[in-house]
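It is worth pausing here to work through a concrete case rather than discussing structure prediction in the abstract. The textbook approach is simple: state the sequence, then state the predicted structure, then interpret. We follow exactly that order.
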Amino acid sequence: MKNTRTMPGLVLGAVAIVAFVIGLFMFAASHIAAGVVAEVVAGIAAVVAVAWMLGQHRRIGRAAAAYAAEHPEARVEPPTA
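Step two, the predicted structure:
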């Protein structure tokens, strides 16, 4: 990967998915308290992952805009995301 600053967000997204699946399994196995804990962890991890990824997306956008402003002769591609 070129941009490793997004890695914490991706890892937290994976943690959220795994915790969500574990929570569903715990509910199916009638372990309500463990299911609730897993789903809360999944929710928190998902919110933090989205916030991290949005922050990195904005950081990259600002860096691209700064580069375009400093190098007016350079061909600037439109944003892809």
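Step three, interpretation. The chain has two helices and no strands. Residues 4-70 form one domain.
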